[in-house]
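Changelog excerpt

This revision adds worked examples to the README so contributors can see how folded entries look when concatenated. The first example is reproduced verbatim below.
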Amino acid sequence: MDEPSLELSCSELKQRLDAREALLLVDCREPEEHAIVRLGGSVLVPMAQVPGRLGELAADGRPVVVYCHHGMRSLQAVRWLREQGLADAQSLAGGIDAWSLEIDPAAPRY
């Protein structure tokens, strides 16, 4: 089976969530950003903590979707996770900001 693309769109993520697909949503922003707005059910793993929590992320077993503010940090994290063997890890294109614009206008923007 082919590896999924590095990024998935907000609409793709919404479809997967609506279908109740078991996903591990990882917010790689900082705690103060997470406090402003976050995707429901996501786990906060700030970028600097990703390497130290690789075992936890890998052991979960669910496909990993990482997001940040605009999608740059999460893309970097996903590239690293894939190098470590998490072949299905994906980054949310445009981050939580795009989610607020495209999917959930009630979600605060910053």
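The second example, added in the same revision:
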Amino acid sequence: MIIPFLNSLLNPGIPFDQPQANYPKLYNEIRKSSIGAQVYHLMKANKYQMELPRFFREKLQKIYYACFVQNLLIKHETENLLQEFDKMGIPAIPMKGTCLAERYFEHFAARGTSNIDLLIRPEHMEAATQCIQSKGYRTLLKVNPAHYHFEWIKEAPEQPEPLVVELHWSLAPSGSSQIAMEHAWITSEALNNFNHIRMMDTTYTFYALCVHGVSHQMDSIRYALDLCQFIRLHAGRIGMEQMLERAKADGTINRVIAALSITYQLFPNLNKFLELPFPSKYRFWNEAFLLEISNGGSTYSPFLRTMFAVAAMDTWRFRFIHLFRIFQESDKLGVYAIAKEVNS
């Protein structure tokens, strides 16, 4: 139900005729997919909300207002951290979060976020760590040597949830690609009046969203919705050919093809904004993946999720390394480790 609704919301000419009794189910799918704020923002922007049942609008409005408050707090915390990084002369690029929402989705509360992601060069990681520690981020989650970020937590009494900062040095785990992150820095643009803080340019931001979505097996509609909205709002600024060449060099072309193929399948009208320049291609993914979160169950086994992740990699070397890590964790944690690895 959620896919037809979103297509109707984004394309007013497409009808969405449902009895009122079906809207509680639709609301639960939206809420559990964590896209309530995005949906409400789109409803307001498209003047669509008055066509929907009142209780449905009011529930989404509550999600949006809660998101507004949370994002405002995260925006304020992000700005404080970026000012400190800039003062210390530490280059950083905010990824996702409120900076992404404000720059590419029209408003800092246009999509929900729960943490702060910063891209840091490896040689500046120690200085960056000292910087965030000085701001109260003292708890480091268990470090996975194969991962691509450190996750720090600050307990804030006035906050309902701890604040989380992720210091990234890459877009993907080591051994799963050959991503040259220096390209993200070379193509980045200055942010506001900062001297050392930058933002990824439009094409690289879109590329990063593709890679990120597939790293989560595109198992939530929010990954495809992010890409859909990005295309609709910024199609003229996306260098598709440039992005595909970068993905080939980085060993992530299959991930980009899979992310866009799935997104265009779910939102076929996107070809009016930016034509898909290659035949749709992905393996082992099914639309039922999107409903697992909403239903609170497991429709598809962790095995099929793993197969999708493996098929989306560019080389057998990357695939073997990925599988070896899963089996290594399975030896340590037991038979449920694959599910944990794939859904993390």
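Reviewer comment on example two: The first strand starts at residue 93 and ends at 95. The first helix runs from residue 2 to 10.
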